[in-house]
Amino acid sequence: MIKTVFLVGSLREKSYNMMIAKHIQKRYADRLEIEILDIDLPNYNQDLDMDGKRPEKVENFNAKVNEANAVFMITPEYNHGVSGVLKNAIDWVSRTPGLNNKPGLVASSSMGATAGARGYNNLIQVLDTMPMYLLPGNDIMIGSVHEKFDQDGNLIDEGTVQFIDLVVDKFIEFYNKVK
Question: Which of 34, 48, 66, 160 sits at a 20 to 30 Å CA gap from 169?
Answer without folding.
Answer: 66
